[in-house]
Amino acid sequence: MTPRPRTPLVHWTGVLPVAAVVLLALIWGRSLPSALVGAVSLFLAAAVLAAVHHAEVIAHRVGEPFGSLVLAVAVTIIEVALIVTLMVDGGEKSAGLARDTVFAAVMITCNGIVGLCLLVGALKRRVAVFNAEGTGAELASVATLAGLSLVLPSFTTTTPGPQFSGPQLVFAALAALALYGLFVTTQTIRHRDYFLPLTTAGEVIDSEDHADPPSLRAALSSLGLLVLALVAVVGLAKAVSPTIESGVAAAGLPSSVVGVVIALLVLLPETIAAVRAARRDRIQTSINLGLGSAMASIGLTIPAVALATIWLKGPLVLGLGASHMVLLALTVVVGTLTVVPGRATVLQGSVHLTLLAAYLVLAVSP
């Protein structure tokens, strides 16, 4: 057997996360001029690509569905830190930031990532094949948590406005954590085979045959560099966020657009990783990344912001408006119809992308 070529000791994916974190330390808390914002944005894009590379190394080492879970949880934990930081800095004007960012994440993952990957898979193999049992469980979990956390607050009457009372918020946070913990257990232990990719003939792919997995040392190095890259992504995104907020305000756009931009930036590593998996005909891996990210976004963000209300000033607005509830309902219905057959065509992928386009249009022009 021909030995694999050795990976160079110094590679851009190893240097870039460290350089990006150093840059973040140098600019943290400072107002950035326009020229420097462009340079920071380039480092941000490179950190995203480095994060995707190291996530794929880890996924190859631990196998599915653990690989997609690592990336989803890592990104979401740092996304939560970004949301809480911006809410602390923003005061009352950021009361709806958690809601806007979480809902944007749900729409981007359930319609954008899933739709794009189904489209890529169907164009390559005519039909994109995935496991209906595992995907159905993921979609049901996302729908339940989105309904409890983002829809229900608009209909409660204990407090005025689309907000939970204290006990209601505690229940929503505990329910989110419990369901997410149960979901992870189901995905990785009790029914792991439901979340493994399938061939077009419907056979489970439990291992990759094209290359030997990386060593434990290489996987641990990639794990550390992945964390650094994600810290850099979120930190640099926060550094350019004042420019984003100023641009949104200057363009006369709603403040909720800031949440959309944050979600797009933070979910970029998962989007790239999911599309790469779809191109390798690993549609279930792509769906695990998409719906798993939506689940992690709700399951970890809601408890975190609930805890943060202890020291945050101002209200915490979680309830969606009428138009967003309609989009969420359409997403759940269309997602259910897509999942049931376990096979999808170009049409299903296009329908999901159309829903994402409708959400983006309404975000800019409510």
TrEMBL record:
GO MF term set: potassium:proton antiporter activity; sodium:proton antiporter activity
Chain ranges passing through the membrane: 9-29, 35-54, 66-87, 102-123, 135-156, 168-186, 223-241, 247-268, 289-312, 318-339, 346-365
InterPro entries assigned to the protein according to its UniProt record, in alphabetical order: Alkaline_pH_Ca-Antiporter, NaCa_Exmemb
Keywords (A to Z) from UniProt: Membrane, Transmembrane, Transmembrane helix
Pfam families tied to this protein: Na_Ca_ex (PF01699)
Gene Ontology CC terms, in alphabetical order: plasma membrane
Source lineage: Bacteria, Bacillati, Actinomycetota, Actinomycetes, Kitasatosporales
Family annotation (PANTHER family): SODIUM-POTASSIUM/PROTON ANTIPORTER CHAA (PTHR37958), SODIUM-POTASSIUM_PROTON ANTIPORTER CHAA (PTHR37958:SF1)
Membrane-protein topology: Multi-pass membrane protein
The species this protein was found in: Streptomyces noursei
Domain spans labelled Sodium/calcium exchanger membrane region: 39-188, 222-363
Chief place of localization: membrane
Protein name in UniProt: Ionic transporter y4hA
